[in-house]
Specification:
With 433 residues, this protein is mainly alpha-helical.
């Protein structure tokens, strides 16, 4: 384990710098636009351009990597992200910033595809689970740490934007000096979106709604905190607490998911998250620590909807279709992360800052009702036949899907022809999720 982490130290350091710089910049922009008294609906449109750029990036950055190679592509994408960070304070314009957010999202998709390709190339059946866990822990802790950097400068000045650009630029150094051979570039296989809806509608709904919830919170959480009167240090702790909660709740909920019917678990998780979101909306900053506790439960529960959705879907898939289905679920999450900030920003404009949590609570109740209906009207995979739960992380590229530990034995059985529809792992059971 130690040797593996040491061999990937350059990649891990680049991840720390990139993710912390990007997370810091996202929170900084929300605070800065609130300071500039920009309407929340406009802020939502500006910040959602990052998700749009990211989704487009996951679809097209492979073409750049194929032409120039991994290290050159990484240098290009990281440099573009750093330049975008420097350009923000030059002109406080919603249209200009929306363009920069789209550029940043596309660039971050590019650097993550490069980094995760290297991780994927190092995965074996012996180290797959450890590698997957190390990546996710580093990613979450870096994102949480990035929130705390907001305290280092006045959001209304040029300084914090320069700091973000420095972090993004420094990420070039470790990976550019690596002696590891560049991994091969594999085509990303996807299942048709509508095919996946027919085969696992609960999985698609869970991943889509998770994108709505997490996308809107990361984009509008700093706006909410600023509008309710938190100072910069409180905003940074508020956002960091939410991210750490998402990481900490993944393991215990995974244990529950392996012991009970997963669609029932999704239903209860959605209900608990809805209650926590409603509590957060009602509490306000006057009871800051209670508010942070409620938000931690809300974001932690919401973030687990994606890995639960992946688990539900994998339970219904032949092994040779799991990677393609997971890639499509990731795209579904991306679509949700585009929808969320736009819709919730409009709710905030109409209702006030607490509308962020009231709106998300309503979405969660809708998911709970839909899941409950599907439980009553369709067959379920028996608990004994469920795949092992893995705390999959949606804030990544489709490349990371391939090192999911559940793909350890990802092979097409010689007895099963692709597309045959047979599911011997589940004793022939097929059920629409």
């Amino acid at each position: 384990m130690t040797r593996m982490v040491t061999s990937l130290s350059a990649l891990l350091l680049s991840i720390v710098l990139l993710v912390s710089g990007n997370a810091f910049l996202m929170t900084l922009l929300g605070i800065r636009m609130s300071i500039e008294s920009i309407d929340p609906a406009t802020i939502g449109w500006v910040l959602v351009c990052y998700s749009i750029g990211f989704v487009l990036g996951t679809l097209y950055v492979n073409r750049v990597i194929e032409r120039v190679g991994h290290i050159r592509a990484f240098a290009v994408f990281a440099a573009v992200a750093a330049v975008a960070a420097l350009l923000y304070p030059l002109a406080v314009s919603a249209v200009f910033w929306a363009f920069l957010r789209g550029l940043s999202g596309f660039s971050m998709a590019g650097v993550l595809v490069v980094i995760e390709s290297w991780f994927s190339s190092r995965a074996t059946n012996a180290n797959r689970g450890a590698l997957f866990a190390v990546y996710q822990i580093v990613f979450f802790l870096s994102a949480a740490g990035g929130q705390l950097i907001v305290n280092l400068g006045d959001p209304a000045s040029f300084t914090p934007f320069t700091l973000a650009a420095i972090l993004l630029t420094l990420a070039l150094i470790p990976l550019s000096l690596t002696r590891m051979d560049a991994p091969p570039i594999d085509a990303v296989e996807r299942m048709s979106f509508f095919t996946l809806v027919r085969e696992s509608s609960s999985g698609v709904a869970g991943s889509l709604i998770c994108g709505v919830l997490i996308g809107s919170f990361y984009a509008l959480g700093p706006v909410y905190a600023t509008l309710v009167g938190m100072d910069v240090s409180e905003v940074s702790v508020f956002m960091a607490t939410a991210i750490v909660a998402a990481m900490l709740l993944a393991w215990p909920l995974g244990q529950v998911c392996d012991r009970f019917n997963r669609r029932k678990v999704m239903c209860w998780v959605a209900l608990i998250a809805a209650i926590a979101g409603t509590a957060a909306a009602l509490l306000g900053p006057g009871q800051l620590w209670l508010l942070m506790l409620a938000v931690g439960v809300f974001t932690g529960m919401s973030a687990t909807l994606y890995p639960i959705a992946v688990a539900i879907t994998n339970d219904r898939m032949e092994h040779h279709r799991i990677v393609a289905a997971s890639a499509t679920l990731l795209l579904s999450y991306g679509i949700g992360s585009v929808i969320g900030p736009i819709v919730m920003a409009k709710v905030v404009s109409l209702v006030g800052p607490q509308g962020l949590f009231f709106g998300n609570a309503a979405v969660l109740l809708g998911l709970a009702l839909f899941t409950s209906y599907k439980i009553k009207t369709t067959y379920d995979v028996p608990v004994a036949a469920q795949e092992h739960f893995v705390a999959a992380m949606p804030q990544s590229s489709t490349v990371l899907v391939e090192i999911d530990p559940r793909n350890e034995h990802f092979r097409v059985s010689p007895e099963i022809a692709p597309g045959s529809g047979d599911v011997p792992y589940h004793d022939g059971l097929r059920s629409t999720g």
